[in-house]
């Protein structure tokens, strides 16, 4: 057979040779996706190799000839496009063209995996996912997106770091398309209607809401619409303040009925991508913060009704109304899991609105805890917020550091810090790729809502988005290097603080260097903690003996069920909050029989006044001492 790369043959002679009657008799027909049969044409392989890989013409000809020889020698009677590509990839691997194989491969899944999903096999009993046709379609699409990101977007070092467990790329299936989370300014919808952007020809536009009932409908529907472009949670800031002007002339009963409808609509209209309920957060205040008193207040029909400082009483009514709704729960008395409220607590509000906060304690004990945001801490204290423009900020992506792994593979503290430094740099490269990708998606209008504009200004501001680096397992890392857990010895706790300070300074340095905003956060995902722990148990069975319940402790938290008082736990974990410039959280275990409303409120005041805790929530655990 004539070699394809032999230079003495012209293009015409090659074609005539390859497609000679003799070859045609040896080569099978190809079934095409269009539904018909076609003659096998080796030149199509050659052209696709040159187009899709980095092979030069000579090497591409060589691979094509090997494929033709393989097909002829095997005696295959029938071929399809995917089958041909499998053969090409096999030969690329055999010839040690591994990078070219990655570029040329197909992405998908085994048929048995898809059929198992259809038949409901391998579904965990305590699954937090609703299994329906759309979820199955999403699952299949995520499999493809995962492979695409690992094969095409990330290089070998970055892909291997995720697969092996050095890091965890959160929401990997959405890496190539979607930002993670977003905080929306409600005024954007209240002032401009639904949708608020003007460059969506395929949506019918509603004008600004003329009542509280219409306003909450617009706000809920915007979350439902825009969730299609995000992989994580959505947030509305200061919801009680921004809705206050719409309550004028309504009775408390009418306000409660409408706000209850708001909660139901978010639960029943928004289709979550990964959970049984939508990931939505409201930040709630009992009054108008002093730095926002003179901000123009938007009311019915999008008109200005004085200043928000004129609506303090209405803000408090909404605050209390939401508490009453959450205490009652739904028709069957079931708690509302979403939207999750973040309750802001400011120093002067503790005394002025104590009765309202005490009502929240009743809700916390009976129906579950909201998130509490401690504005008494220096980290969260009131700052001047420029509300002359809509506030729009969020997080593009989160990459998680596996701190225990770095202790396992290092011989001493210095080497461990060097590994941490390298892994943070690796995270920064991945995050910059994400930022570049989202920039391309905005320009190509693949994120039509985010790329939408109001008065010529894009509502999704890429330059204000954060790039999040978080971490798990500080406690296990410290134990590996010092022989003590964080709570067992002051030197171990101080070493943990040293590690977090190092990571925070590294993120600050990179932010200045790269002109982007890296922020160091705590990681709340139990999925990533379990995945990384499971991998370490497999790769480092001797050193990973400290892992309890097959998961690592979250971020810089102390291990659960240790013999330590609750207040001491709070203080030790609070030390890390001022260091972090990203998301923080503290999950506090309580005994329901011990903590009544007054005692729980005293505990919260103690946390706010006497610790550096930034964000906290409660859960009940009868085993906690």
Helix count equals 23
Spans of at least 5 consecutive residues whose pLDDT stays below 50 are 1-12
The percentage helix is 40-55%
| Main sheet summary | 11 strands, mixed
Category from helices, strands and their pairing: alpha/beta
Kindly report the average pLDDT value: 87
How far apart are the termini? 81 Å
Question: How large is the radius of gyration?
Answer: 29 Å
**Structurally, how many domains make up the residues?**
3
| Beta-strand content bin | 5-15%
General form: globular
Number of strands: 18
Topology:
Layout: H1 11-18, H2 21-26, E1 29-31, E2 37-39, H3 42-52, H4 57-74, E3 78-80, H5 81-94, H6 98-104, H7 111-118, H8 133-153, H9 156-164, E4 167-169, E5 181-184, H10 187-192, H11 212-226, E6 234-236, H12 239-243, H13 252-269, E7 280-284, E8 296-298, E9 304-307, H14 312-328, E10 340-345, H15 347-352, H16 354-367, E11 371-374, E12 393-402, H17 403-408, H18 413-443, E13 453-454, E14 457-458, E15 465-472, H19 474-482, H20 490-514, E16 517-522, H21 526-539, H22 566-574, E17 587-590, H23 597-610, E18 615-620
Parallel strand pairs: 1-3, 5-6, 6-7, 7-10, 10-11, 12-15, 15-16, 17-18
Antiparallel strand pairs: 1-2, 4-12, 5-12, 8-9, 11-18, 13-14
Helix pairs in contact: 3-4, 4-5, 5-6, 11-13, 13-14, 14-16, 16-23, 18-20, 19-20
């Amino acid at each position: 057979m004539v070699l394809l790369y032999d230079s003495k043959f012209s293009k015409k002679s090659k074609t005539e040779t390859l497609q000679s009657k003799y070859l045609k008799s040896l080569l099978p027909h190809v079934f095409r996706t269009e539904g018909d049969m076609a003659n096998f044409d080796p030149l199509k392989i050659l052209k696709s190799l040159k187009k899709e890989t980095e092979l030069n013409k000579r090497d591409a000809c060589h691979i094509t000839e090997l494929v033709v020889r393989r097909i002829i020698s095997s005696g295959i009677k029938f071929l399809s496009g995917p089958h041909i590509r499998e053969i090409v990839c096999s030969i690329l691997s055999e010839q040690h063209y591994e990078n070219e194989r990655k570029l040329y491969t197909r992405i998908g899944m085994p048929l048995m995996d898809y059929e198992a999903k259809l038949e409901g096999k391998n579904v965990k009993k305590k699954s937090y996912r609703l299994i329906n046709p759309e979820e199955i379609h999403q699952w299949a699409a995520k499999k493809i997106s995962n492979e695409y990101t690992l094969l095409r977007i990330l290089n070998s070092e970055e892909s291997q770091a995720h697969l092996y467990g050095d890091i965890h790329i959160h929401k990997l299936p959405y890496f190539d398309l979607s930002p993670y989370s977003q905080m929306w300014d409600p005024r954007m919808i209240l002032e401009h209607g639904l949708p608020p952007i003007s460059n969506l020809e395929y949506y019918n536009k509603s004008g600004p809401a003329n009542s509280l009932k219409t306003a909450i409908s617009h706000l809920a529907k915007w979350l439902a619409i825009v969730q299609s472009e995000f992989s994580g949670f959505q947030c509305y800031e200061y919801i009680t303040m921004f809705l206050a002007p719409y309550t004028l002339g309504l009775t408390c009963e009418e306000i409660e009925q409408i706000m209850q409808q708001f909660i139901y609509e978010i639960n029943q209209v928004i289709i979550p991508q990964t959970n049984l309920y939508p990931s939505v957060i409201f930040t709630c205040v009992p009054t108008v913060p002093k730095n926002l008193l003179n901000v123009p207040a938007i009311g019915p029909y999008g008109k200005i009704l004085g200043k928000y400082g004129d609506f303090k009483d209405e803000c408090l009514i909404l605050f209390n109304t939401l508490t009453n709704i959450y205490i009652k729960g739904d028709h069957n008395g079931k708690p509302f899991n979403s939207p999750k409220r973040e309750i802001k607590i400011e120093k002067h509000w503790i005394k002025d609105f104590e009765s309202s906060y005490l009502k929240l304690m009743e809700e916390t004990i009976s129906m579950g805890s909201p998130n509490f945001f401690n504005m008494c801490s220096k980290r969260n204290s009131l700052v001047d917020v420029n509300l002359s423009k809509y506030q729009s900020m969020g997080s593009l992506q989160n990459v998680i550091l596996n701190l225990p792994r770095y202790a396992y593979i290092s011989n001493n503290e210095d080497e461990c810090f060097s590994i941490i430094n390298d892994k943070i740099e690796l995270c920064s490269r991945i995050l910059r790729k994400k930022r570049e990708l989202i920039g391309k998606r905005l320009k190509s209008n693949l994120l039509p809502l985010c790329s939408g504009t109001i008065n010529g200004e894009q509502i999704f501001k890429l330059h204000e988005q954060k790039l999040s680096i978080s971490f798990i397992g500080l406690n296990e890392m410290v134990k590996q290097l010092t022989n003590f857990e964080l709570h067992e010895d002051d030197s171990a706790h101080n070493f943990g603080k040293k590690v977090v300070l190092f990571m925070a300074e590294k993120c600050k340095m990179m932010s200045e260097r790269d002109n982007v905003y890296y922020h160091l956060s705590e990681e709340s995902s139990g999925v990533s903690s379990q995945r990384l722990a499971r991998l370490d148990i497999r790769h480092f069975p001797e050193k990973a003996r400290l892992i309890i319940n097959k998961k690592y402790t979250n971020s810089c938290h102390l291990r659960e069920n240790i013999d330590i008082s609750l207040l001491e736990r709070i203080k030790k974990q609070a030390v890390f909050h001022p260091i972090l410039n990203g998301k923080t959280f503290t999950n506090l275990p309580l005994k329901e029989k011990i903590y009544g409303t007054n005692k729980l409120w005293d505990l919260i005041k103690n946390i706010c006044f006497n610790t550096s805790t930034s964000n906290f929530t409660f859960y009940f655990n009868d085993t906690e001492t």
